[in-house]
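Why this split exists: single-chain examples teach little about how molecules sit against one another. For that reason, every record in the complexes split bundles all components of an assembly together and asks for one structure covering all of them. Below is a record exactly as it appears in the raw files.
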Amino acid sequence: MFYDEIKKYDWNDTTRCIAAKTARDVEIALGKEHLSIDDFMALISPAGAAYIEPMAQLSQRYTQERFGKTISMYIPLYITNSCTNSCVYCGFNHNNPFKRTILTMEQIEQECKAIRNLGPFENLLIVTGENPAKAGVDYLEKALQTCRPYFNNLTIEVQPMKSDDYYRLTKSGLNGVVCFQETYNEANYKKYHPAGMKSIY
Ligand code: SF4
C-alpha cells in the first residue's frame, strides 16, 4: 500500500535532509540521467534555487523527448459545489454559508453544448465536492453518460472512491481520475482537514 511506503519517511528527517543539501549535491544530481531520491532532494533544496535555469532546460529537453511538442488542454465543468467536508483552504467548505447547487442532467447537457460552442475542447474535467449521499457514484455515472457524446476524453476530480466504483464509471465513459492529497504531513493533516471523510489521512 502507498501508506506503508510513505510511512518509511519521517517528515522532519526529510526536511532536515533537504535543507542540508549543497550546491555540489545539486550539480551531481543535474549530471545524472537517473536520479535517486537523494538527488531529487538536492534539486528541491534551498541550494537548488540557484540552478533553476539549468533545471528548466533539462526539464524541457526531457519533456520534448518523451511527449514531443504537444500541449494538452482541458476544460473543467463544475457539476456541484456541494461538499460535506470542511477543508480550511477551500471555498466549497461545508461551513461556508452559501446556496449549494447540484446540476441536473439537463443542466449538465446545456453546459456541454455551451463548451462545445466555445471551441474544439475534447478533454473535459468533471469536478465536484464530496457529497456521496447527494452526488455519489450514481450521480457521477449519469453525468458521465450525459457528457460522453460531447467529448473524446472524460476525467473526474471528485472524492476518492472504491476500485469497484471507478471500474463502474469506466463503463460510462470515464477515462481518467485526478485525486488530490494536499499534504503528506500526517501530523498537520487534520489541521487543514478538520471534519468529514477527507479528515481521514
Ligand atoms: S473535499 Fe474538496 S471540495 Fe470539499 S471542502 Fe475539501 S477541497 Fe473543497
